[in-house]
Amino acid sequence: MLAIRKAKSLFTVVLTIAIAFATCHAFAEDAYIESDGTSGILTGYKLKPASRVAVDFALTTTEQASGARLFGADRSHTALKMSGSFYIGGGENTLWVIHLGNGEKYDSVWPKDGNGDFITLDTDRHTIVIDYPNPPHLYITGSVTNEVPNEDFTPESFTNEAIEPIALFARQNASGAFEKQCKARIFGVKIYESGALVHDFAPCLKDGMPGFKDIAGDGGFICNPVAETSFTHGGDILVDESAYVATPTGNNTEADKHLYVDTEYFATADTRLELDYALTEERPLGATWYIFSGESQFGAFVQDKGAGFVVKTSQWKTGVAPSVANLVGVKRTAILDVPGKWCGLVTGTCTNDYKSITTNGVFANTSTIKLASYAGANNYFASMKIYGCRIYEAGTLVRDFRPCVFGPLDGTPVVGLKDEVTGTFISYPDATVSKRLTCGGKMGLPPYVETLRADSRYIDTGYLVTANTKVAIDYAPTEEKGSGDTWYLFAAKDTHNFAAYINDKGFGFINSSSWMKGVGADVGASSVNVRRTVILDNPANMGAIVTEGVTNATCATTAGGPFSRLTLRLGTQVGTVANCASIRIYGCKIWEKENGEYVLKRDYVPAVEDSVAGLRDATGNDATFRVCASTAASPLTYGGAFTPVVAQTAARVMHGNTVTLTATAPGATSYSWYRNGEEIPGATSSSLVVRWRRGGETDTYAARSAYAVDAATIESGESESVAVENATPGLTVIIR
């Protein structure tokens, strides 16, 4: 027997079911990018025989220019092997039309409604689908789908890839300019190949510029920075802010602001450099600003003639137009590729211009490459944002500089770039308060606790080392080691036992009776702010130094004699000032080799409890919160972005009700919240009120803690997610 409760009529049942399962997208809330009909945006995607393209849009006016394209890849029908566009004809009987082309064959198909009448223009929201492998094509309005037959073309007709990429709001003509522009809003573009979603372009603001972010593909961003004012946005827009380090405005003219970033790298005949940057103020008339330079041997600049490059004194290349090169606030990539023999500017998916170059003789740079400066000279400094810099040697990535902040968040942090290859931190040579760089966007800074040599601060893990122990400490020095000093990074020793240290000869290890010195001296053992991992493996009789995943050096050790029963201490030998180290501890792991396998016994991570900083064991094997063990009882300091803890576990929210999620992280000034992986606009407090959402699905929520430094948001890692089930309302069905 099928019984339906609380249903007064069949209409009520049907209505309840409809409410339970319908999904609704409010027009005013959905994000969109709007064009005023003066330009277009290239997607970078070239149609293939297996392509299916779906564009969610609404015209902003029915007064469109004749032949206006909502999207298209048809700048030359005879030259393209395949094209597809959405056409708006002119005149009183304006109709929609889909243009399809394959080589020189070309066809127009006209959508009709269910009554067989041509579909006219309106400003409602629609979705147009061009499906090459599986026609017919579709024209969708709400719940009404109109099929668009294509009798002249079969799936087998399309055999080659298109020559030109799809453009949105327009098409490109033979000279590369946009034409046939359309006044419309686009809510999203999805592209499939053989049924698989390969690109999902969602409306997005990146560094303040409207465009689309590919949330299903490589995460790339498409826009038209040359015609930025042609596009506006609305709805709950996705905001994507790139992290950057900035030299100040007035950097070229004011002597106290002559700032730059020194890469500490010398260019060679095999060097390729890619710099992501944006000018932050208009370049003075007649001035030359260097974007980067290693003197007259290697550099890129902007001047009245546009952008230029120099490779050795005799190779001086200009040509990128001033209207392109000198725009303020436009993010670009300047590339100088010596072995590839070319240089140029790239904006988004568009290469603005490039020039071939040649070199003669041997590079003889006496200055390292500097960003925003000509080798430190006083009249070539650029006011600019630096988003990243990559350096290759003979095709191999040797430097990958990314914006980074070092130092306490509640003090005056040092802003610069961190090399993800070597772990080196670079900045302006004199990082004083009056001359520091600024930063912005979303930047990462891992949490840490900090020992201090002057206060004899260290941490006692309470762990007794054995002959089967392996230890790894993740750390960075915070001050330069003095000449003749020995700093212990960790130790469980009295005379001859178990320790890792640095001295004037570099890294050293003690493994029972084995005392090894001078290991890895060439990697700068006490270089300030260089993050490393030092490993001592008892059963393997091996010590190692690792920088950002790269093993710099290893050494063999020889175990011998009994191990003392001293516990492992981090940042000292026995707690005396002479042997303590000033370091940041990002983590410490301890393993024991059992039955031939390494078993993780401790995983100490930075934590703060009741405003006290220390290390917590993430494995749960050690319940003690490890804090400063200094004889002076000085507390540890801490910094970085601590991953928040969300108190709730899985929850269920009923129709009309809410559930509140709360995140906590020490020192956080705000939070960001994510639903199903997408950031929730405007959610910045530690609490998030989750309202019931129609559809009966389960959403996952997570949080990141945030800290403010200049215009930057220092973000933590993402918390563990919480599942919230949206309970289906209404209908109750009982089967007997």
Query: Into which percentage range does the β-strand content fall?
Result: over 45%
CATH class of the largest domain: Mainly Beta
Give the CATH architecture of the largest domain. Answer: Sandwich
Terminal CA distance reads 5 Å
CATH topology of the largest domain: the name is Jelly Rolls
Structural classification: mainly beta
The residue-averaged pLDDT reads 81
Domain tally: 4
Looking at the structure, what is the overall shape?
A: globular
Largest sheet: 16 strands, mixed
User: What is the tally of beta strands?
Assistant: 61
Helix content: under 10%
Poorly predicted ranges: 1-28
Number of alpha- plus pi-helical segments:
2
Overall radius of gyration: 31 Å
Q: How are the secondary structure elements laid out?
A:
Blueprint: E1 2-4, H1 10-21, E2 32-36, E3 41-42, E4 51-59, E5 68-72, E6 83-88, E7 96-102, E8 105-109, E9 125-131, E10 137-141, E11 144-148, E12 167-168, E13 171-172, E14 178-179, E15 183-193, E16 196-206, E17 209-214, E18 221-222, E19 231-234, E20 238-240, E21 244-246, E22 261-262, E23 271-279, E24 289-293, E25 298-303, E26 306-311, E27 315-320, H2 322-325, E28 332-337, E29 342-347, E30 350-356, E31 370-371, E32 384-393, E33 396-406, E34 414-419, E35 425-426, E36 438-444, E37 448-450, E38 459-464, E39 469-477, E40 487-492, E41 498-503, E42 506-511, E43 514-519, E44 532-537, E45 542-547, E46 550-556, E47 567-570, E48 583-594, E49 597-609, E50 612-617, E51 637-639, E52 645-646, E53 651-653, E54 658-664, E55 670-675, E56 678-679, E57 687-691, E58 698-709, E59 711-715, E60 722-726, E61 733-735
Parallel strand pairs: 16-20, 36-59, 53-60
Antiparallel strand pairs: 1-61, 2-15, 2-19, 3-12, 4-9, 4-15, 5-6, 5-12, 6-7, 7-8, 9-10, 10-11, 13-14, 15-16, 16-17, 17-18, 21-32, 21-36, 22-31, 23-28, 23-32, 24-25, 24-31, 25-26, 26-27, 28-29, 29-30, 32-33, 33-34, 34-35, 37-48, 37-51, 38-47, 39-44, 39-48, 40-41, 40-47, 41-42, 42-43, 44-45, ...
